[in-house]
Recover the amino acids of this structure.
């Protein structure tokens, strides 16, 4: 009797504790005000597996978002960036109204106006990108700024680090900012060389212990930015690693980057300065004193470009909004290349609607990405896309890492953002939106070249039961990816 009484009380106590736990955790998650599907996914996982689920949320969930936002907004005010004049209507007077609306949306959601460029060059492959960056570094006269998610201390990374050290010794302002998680292999022995040469180094969201036990796995800087003398800028998908250079690794990632010259580089510089200023809160270093020199007045170019940045410091989800708006604006074609395809409901609806209304919608993804769960989640969407008229292709030659979008003959988007929840909502990203036929034609040509190494996915392709089950399970966790 006593044994049964004890068991009964133990079960009752556990039930009460579990109920209190579910209520407290539920309120905690609800106050984050995330998408309903993501909220329900987190609630379900933590209710079913309380201890493990709570641990996963503690390390992966969107905690401290408001605090991050406050710090970012504070650093944004400190960066003292000047305003600029929107130029789209003057430069592209014949553009349709929907093009102006896309530009207005970028401005409204990012506070970055339309600008111009003298040159917009598409760089295909890590080799071409690294050669161009190294040449620009060697020719730099005043300043070199770099921000990377991945900066590996391998042949590529150490070679670039040597070049940066040399320019720092020559007296140039050299600043290197890397994400602490993405560049975790870059140790103090590597970047101390840069500091000893006179350059500066900072980590974005370093892992700390003590008062801040939680390593920040979300809120990463996924950006790739290079700004030389405030006049030449680079962004795109290419990280600093041998894995992007086919000359070193035959199966290196297939990727693209963009090189910009002209006034628009001011805005790419602005993104870097905000991130640098924010990182100083952690690294306790002095802010740049040469802000004005880093943002030179440059004459207008003949190509219209807009820098678009987004991150968890803002609720606007600028890159997410603009991608969806651009899809809605498409009349003839919408060609999307992404290594990680885990669309939100809004993005999925936009793609299928475009195809249903007659737009040539093509999606190019890798046959096998470097994440099995993301590959499986992406494939779970294929049948729905194909049934609505979307053409889906899998790139087979190597790992596809390009992140581009072409809308009709009027918009080309290239940058660091994948077409997934993490890039849209959890990471800091940056893209260049190029208006006009010239750059769209370059992305068009590259897309068609990539298709020669891809195969088209058919509807209801043969799959085993376990494959279909695995894809469905991966899709279930897509709001958390």
């Amino acid at each position: 009797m006593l044994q049964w009484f004890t068991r009964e009380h133990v079960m009752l106590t556990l039930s009460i504790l579990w109920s209190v736990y579910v209520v407290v955790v539920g309120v905690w998650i609800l106050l984050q005000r995330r998408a309903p599907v993501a909220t329900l996914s987190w609630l379900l996982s933590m209710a079913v597996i309380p201890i493990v689920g709570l641990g996963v949320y503690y390390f992966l969930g969107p905690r401290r978002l408001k605090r991050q936002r406050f710090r970012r907004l504070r650093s944004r005010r400190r960066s003292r960036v000047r305003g600029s004049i929107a130029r789209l209507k003057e430069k592209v007077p014949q553009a349709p109204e929907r093009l102006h609306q896309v530009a207005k949306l970028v401005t409204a959601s990012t506070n970055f106006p339309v600008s111009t460029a003298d040159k917009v060059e598409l760089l295909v492959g890590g080799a071409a990108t690294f050669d161009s960056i190294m040449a620009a570094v060697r020719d730099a006269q005043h300043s070199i700024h770099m921000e990377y998610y991945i900066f590996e201390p391998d042949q590529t990374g150490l070679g670039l680090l040597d070049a940066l050290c040399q320019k720092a010794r020559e007296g140039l302002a050299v600043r290197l900012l890397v994400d602490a998680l993405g560049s975790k292999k870059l140790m103090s022995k590597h970047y101390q060389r840069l500091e000893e040469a006179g350059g500066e180094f900072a980590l974005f969201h370093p892992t700390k212990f003590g008062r801040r036990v939680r390593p920040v796995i979300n809120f990463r800087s996924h950006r790739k930015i290079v700004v030389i003398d405030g006049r030449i800028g680079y962004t795109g998908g290419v990280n600093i690693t041998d894995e992007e250079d086919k000359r070193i690794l035959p199966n290196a990632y297939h990727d693209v980057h963009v090189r910009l010259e002209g006034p628009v580089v001011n805005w790419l510089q602005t993104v870097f300065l905000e991130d640098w200023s924010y990182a100083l809160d952690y690294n306790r270093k002095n802010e740049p004193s040469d802000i004005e020199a880093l943002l030179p007045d440059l004459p207008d170019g003949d190509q219209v470009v807009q820098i678009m940045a987004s991150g968890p410091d803002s609720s606007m989800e600028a890159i997410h909004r603009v991608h969806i708006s651009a899809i809605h604006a498409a009349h003839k074609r919408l060609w999307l290349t992404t290594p990680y395809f885990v669309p939100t409901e809004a993005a999925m609806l936009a793609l299928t609607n475009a195809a249903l209304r007659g737009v040539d919608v093509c999606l190019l993804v890798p046959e096998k990405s470097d994440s099995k769960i993301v590959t499986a989640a992406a494939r779970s969407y294929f049948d729905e896309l194909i049934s609505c008229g979307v053409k889906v292709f899998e790139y087979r030659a190597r790992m596809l890492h390009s992140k581009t979008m072409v809308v009709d003959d009027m918009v080309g988007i290239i940058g660091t953002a994948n077409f997934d929840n993490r890039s849209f909502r959890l990471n800091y990203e940056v893209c260049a939106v190029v208006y006009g036929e010239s750059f769209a034609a370059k992305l068009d040509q590259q897309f068609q070249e990539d298709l020669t190494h891809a195969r088209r996915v058919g509807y209801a392709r043969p799959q085993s039961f376990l494959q279909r089950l695995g894809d469905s399970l991966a899709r279930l966790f897509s709001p958390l990816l």
About this structure: The two ends are 50 Å apart (CA to CA).
